[in-house]
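The material for today's practical consists of a large collection of protein records. Backbone structure tokens are a discrete shorthand for how the chain folds in space. An example says more than a description, so a record of this kind follows:
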Amino acid sequence: QVQLVESGGGLAQPGGSLRLSCAASGSTFSSYCMYWARQAPGKGPEWVSGIYSDGSVTYYADSVKGRFTVSRDNAKNTVYLQMNSLKPEDTAVYYCNAGGGKGSWGQGTQVTVSS
């Protein structure tokens, strides 16, 4: 098991940027594929992005492709989500995940995009 703590959420204007961080502790972070998911008010959860354990492969949902970038620093046990060109529809609670749906989840961080 790995413990995850997200940070970096907040309020951004449309067109603005935020960078989320997810710090991991416990087990061997570098062995996990890491993911970001989000849940907007009144909507179901959505997988946003993923990254292989060595960072060699990344995945993006169509809704964020070209605007969001996932990265990781295995030396710091941290995965990042750089979010640019934010839109109001990006407003959601963002969660970090290790290992997929049945893996470990963080507590979430709120991202609100509004003018």
User: Anything to note?
Assistant: The mean pLDDT is 96. The chain has no helices and eleven strands. The two ends are 39 Å apart (CA to CA). The CA atoms of residues 30 and 72 lie 9 Å apart.
